[in-house]
Amino acid sequence: LTIQHFPPPPPLMPPLSRNVAVIGAGSAGIVSARELHRKGHKVTVFEKRNQLGGTWVYTPEIEPDPIGINPGRKIIHSSLYSSLRTNLPREVMGFRDYPFVSTRKPGRDDRRFPGHVEVLEYLREFSCEFGVDGLVRFGTEVCHVGRDDDGKWLVKSRTRGDDDEEVFDAVVVCNGHYTEPRIADIPGIHSWPGKQIHSHNYRSPEAFQGQVVVLIGSANSADDISREISNVAKEVHIASRSVDNGFVQKISSHDNLWLRSMIKSVHDDGAVTFEDGGTIYADVILYCTGYKYHFPFLDTNEIVTVDDNRVGPLYKHVFPPMLAPWLSFVGLPWKVIPFPLCELQSKWIASVLSGQVSLPSADDMMADVEAFYSSMEASSVPKRYTHNMSDYQFDYDDWLAEQCGCSLTEEWRKEMYSLTSKRKRAQPETYRDKWDDEEWLSLAQQDFIKYLS
Ligand code: FAD
User: Fold this and answer.
1) Which of 338, 446, 443, 346 lies closest to 87 in space, CA to CA?
2) Residue 426 per-residue DSSP state
3) What is the model's pLDDT at position 101?
4) CA angle 329, 330, 335 (to 5 degrees)
């Protein structure tokens, strides 16, 4: 999948100031607020929790329904586990113009792959530095967003039981997409007697003491959680779609950790049968099977839908052609470096809303979306991978940068990202503490000087 490069069209009108609602004060929401504010828009950020940081606000609390299928359940936003350290080096992960460097202050976590508390501190500092805190309405949940008769957006919100309604020119959706669990469909699961839990509700390994666990998935959380659980569990079997049928591999660094193919079926005596032909008796199935995009508050009259995890139609994953630029989404892409990508998406939205950068016509944007969907289909890429940018995130970032007249992605960031991915595969246990990318690290540090002085 390739991105077509062309220079941004010239500005059509002088900068305009809009009244903009941003939904969510996670990393996407706070950088959107900063960019919109910088361009002179009037910004209100709605945040249902009492602090900013979104995913990075760890809580030990879990949901009462461990696989998250009951729509009426109490929702816990963050999916972080207690031991979580970043899966990217801090230099790569940080915003482009606000480097995520060690502070060397007492009590702070100076590691290159720090724990989650350090990321939250960084986001707080960012917010404070750019005056974003003052734009956020904390403890305010957006319950409904729909268009009024004038084509403006009516935002209904609730703050500690009080309802409110306001009208905005534009809405930027930044509500995150790691809260609503996706569950694998397993033949026989309804009569399988064991426990089931989604990684959204995993916090620490103690509950798995002495248990036989089948963990489904192969992404970052699956890697971390399987290894952590194997320290206390009797056996951990990782069922992964990326493993060939008939293949069972013991993971050499552990005596009780196995990599297997997908589950074929489960049975009422507790048996779990794998595509590789093997059967085990398990106590728990732990789904590390990802999340669904979910916008329970958004009413676009079906102009924007979520179909098999495709949010669409969206021009370049941001603007619905029929509602652009008055509705936009920040942070939908995955298998990416989220903070700098959200920063560029936000710059683009802020520039378009101020009239400094123009969009193609609705028909041309729609044609672009259709062409993208057709190219996915032609390459047999499933619909649910619509926002998976593993193959082209830097092309996408650079396309956005060109639109806004910003510098392209730094060479060191690309190289460090690629080396980290390789190291993660080669040394999954130690990739966060042993590295060999000093050359790129020193280039990054030189680059940061201009932002730190
Ligand atoms: P969120 O952080 O989820 O923020 C959304 C915000 O919207 C929340 O504050 C929420 O309360 C608010 N909200 C939602 N609905 C409403 C509503 N109706 N009204 C008002 N407010 C609302 N990224 C990395 O760069 N490095 C990592 O190492 C990394 N590790 C990760 C590990 C895990 C387990 C997970 C789940 C994600 C990880 N990520 C990592 C990705 C991470 O999610 C992104 O970095 C980023 O934090 C997402 O930000 P966001 O603003 O899009 O969403």
Assistant:
1) 338
2) H
3) 96
4) 120
- Measured distance CA(124)–CA(26) in Å, rounded: 10
Name 99's Cβ contacts closer than 8 Å, sequence gap at least 6: 91, 444, 448, 451, 452
Sign of the dihedral through C-alpha 82, 86, 91, 97 = negative
- ipTM confidence score: 0.99
Strand partners, 141: 158
Whole-number Cα distances in Å, 372 to 305, 312, 329, 379: 17, 11, 18, 11
Handedness of CA 15, 403, 89, 446 (dihedral sign): negative
pTM: 0.95
Q: Whose CA is nearest to atom 31 of ligand 1?
A: 86
C-alpha closest to that of 406 among 347, 323, 338, 324: 347
**Residues 249-289: tens digit of each pLDDT:** 888 778 899 999 999 999 999 999 999 899 999 999 999 99
Residue 264 forms beta bridges with which residues? Answer: none
Per DSSP, the residues of 352-383 read HHTTSS-PPPHHHHHHHHHHHHHHHHHTT--G
CA of 298 to the centre of ligand 1 (A): 18
Identity of residue 100: F
Atom from ligand 1 closest to the CA of residue 337 = 25
432 in Cβ contact with 85 (< 8 Å): yes
| Prior bond of 325 cis (ω within 30°) | yes
Tokens of 27: 């990393």
Q: State phi, psi for 88 to the nearest 5 degrees.
A: -125, 150
Name the stretches of the chain with pLDDT < 70. Answer: 1-14, 245-246
**355 φψ region: left (φ > 0), alpha (ψ -120 to 50), beta (else):** left
Pocket of ligand 1 (CB under 6 A): 23-29, 46-49, 54-56, 77, 79-80, 84, 86-88, 93, 141-142, 174-176, 178, 221, 297, 331, 338-339
Pick the closest to residue 367 from 324, 321, 399 (CA basis): 321
CA of 52, closest atom in ligand 1: 9
